[in-house]
Every structure is written in structure tokens, then in C-alpha cells.
Amino acid sequence: KCITVSNLSSEDMPLRPKLLDPFGGFRVLSAMRSVPPGGERRLFIDFQPVMAKKYRELWTVRTGRGSMRVVLRGEGICPSFRLEPEDTSQKTIDMGDIFKGEKSERTFKIHNTSPFDLPYSLVFTGGVAQPNIGPLPPFYTRPAEGGESHEVAVVFAPDHEFPYHQQVLEVKVPNQQEMCAIRLKGRCWEEGMYVSGGEWHRIEEDVQKQRSLLGERTAADELPRQMTLTCRSIARPGKPASCSLVVGNLKSTQAGAANGEYQVSDLSAADKAKGWNVDVPKAAIPPGTHKQVVFTFSPPWEQPPDSLVHFEISEWQELKVDVLLKGGAPPPRTASSTRQILLTVRCFLEPAREEDKIAAEAEARLNSPEGRKPGSPSKKASPGRKR
């Protein structure tokens, strides 16, 4: 704001202002020179609030003939905006599974709900996204900054295989009170058939980049790949736990598309006795689709004497199977065109609880032939009360 001071006298009028509160939000930008006779001086006042509240301050300027008092008022307003969909900043945006060198896009909208123009910028602040071989990053936005409400496109464009691309996209505005972060993740593959959901062993970034640059089969391609799948819940006798992985088949604009299939090796009799099971051990996967394969661990009540749970001690239980991938475009880069994955499924097993045993025994009695026998004695009704 500008305040104009006029000198109506025939003498110079010096200006000696009182200092403003350094934490009040107001400050004087103009030099306080004297005002010549019949002249005027323009004083500029800047308002920069540091909090969202109403400000009021009395500013006094002394002259040779008296004092001038000016009431300064202002209101600090927090910048506000919203994202659409509204839960964009509360969940992870999955960019999906794509073939190397291709792109996937997801969009969201930024709406400025402030009563003033609000410039913003989109900055990647963290994550485990590996840099591309080429000049572009695996994640970028279009546009990267702006000042109006409009749609933002997030682009996922990796150029080599890596199953753990993750980054955090932060929306930044001036005087921001709370951080607004959007989590991103995506997966990139070199073969049409893929498996995700578990933890891969020995993801060597430099080796994968070198393989992408060479574009030819190497000795490492013939080796089986290893993955570990861990159940998030805890199992107990009478309380099963399950976990799943995803088997998919890419539909690529570069490599085309072809039918694929997967097969989980047969479970041994010992694994079945422990309570392990897989819902669909073999299936065909059409291009552009994926299937969830569920592994369930249902430990029996009677645990073998060589197990720790038999002695009331918790332990990890493991299932080791082979997962074979065939088909897809391009097919696996092996001599047999089959990708072998050594899968280890892990689940934490606790001893049975007393309340679980009581509930299981009650259910067993209820489902037994004696419990369902007709004509069993029923509870006799109490006689009614006479009035």
C-alpha cells in the first residue's frame, strides 16, 4: 500500500517514524526523507503475514510540527487447494506394469480454492526410482508448475527392467502449512510374462542396464530368478493366513502380444500336511491381463513333535516351489523360452491359543452326529407367572 504525505508549510518537514513490530507483518519499504515545502512524499508499506490471522498495528510518524498516526490492518490467509480425486494424496498411484521404452499416464487435477492466484510447483522429493539410461527420468509430470486450476499428467517412462520404481511427488505452494505428497510406483519388464508382489533377490541395477544396452541374451538370463513372498498376517492352528502374487502378460505396442501361461510346481505331501495350499496352480494368461495366485497356510491343530510350535514356541514356516512362465511377447530370454522362478513363501506361525481350542472343540461338538441328533433333550421352559 502507498501513503502520501504532503507538506503544506513553508519549511522542510522531517519524518521520524516509530519502528514497527518486527513480528507484526508490516514493514516500511521507502526511505524516510524530509518533505520539501509544498511537496509530498510517497511511503510504501509492505504486508507479509507469517500466520493465518488478523493483524492490526498503530504506526506513528513524528514531524517537526506534530505526529501522524496511521492504523495498519491486514489479514493473513493460508493458501488452499484441493486435489481431484480427493484421496489422491492419501493413497499410492500405481502406474502399472509396462514394457521397457513405453509409457503409462495417470492424471489428477489441482484446484485453487484461495481467493488469490496461487502458483504451484511439482517436485520429486524421494523414493527408489532408478535413473534411466537415457536423459529423461522414469517419472515426470506435465506440466511441472502452474498458477491456475488444471489437470496434471504423471508419466511413467522407464527404459530398462526394474520392478521397484517408487517416488514421492510433492505439491508445493508459497507459505504452505502442510506438506502434500503423492506416492507413485510402477514396474518395468523386458519380457511379456512377469511376476510381481514378492521381493526379488539380488536386483542388480548395473547388470540390468547393461543387459538393456546390449539387447542380447547373456549367461545370467539362463539362471533361475529367486523371489520371496511373505504373509503379512500371523497364522495359528485354527487361524489360516494367506498371501498372493500377481502373474501378468503385457500387451506391448512395440513387441506385440501373445498368449502366455504359468505353472506352479506340485506341492509335496509334507507341505500339504503342514497346511500349505495354492488356489490356481496353473492357468493361461491372455495378453493385457493378469491373475492373482493365492497361497494359503492353514496349520493343523496337531503339530509334529519336531516343530517349535509343538513346544509352544513361535517359528517361521516356509514353502519352496517353482513358478514357470511361458509365452508372452517377447518370450523369456532363455534357450527353452521358459522363465523359472524359485519362489519361497514364508509365514510366521504362533502356538494355538486356549480360546481358539475351546471354540474349535465347541464347533466340533456342534457338528458331530450326537450334536445334531434329533430328539436331544432341550431346555425346559420355565412356568409363567400368574397374575
Automatic annotation (TrEMBL):
Residues 359-387 are annotated as: Disordered. Keywords: Cell projection, Cilium, Flagellum. PANTHER family: CILIA- AND FLAGELLA-ASSOCIATED PROTEIN 74. This is Flagellar associated protein fap74. The lineage of its organism: Eukaryota, Viridiplantae, Chlorophyta, core chlorophytes, Chlorodendrophyceae.
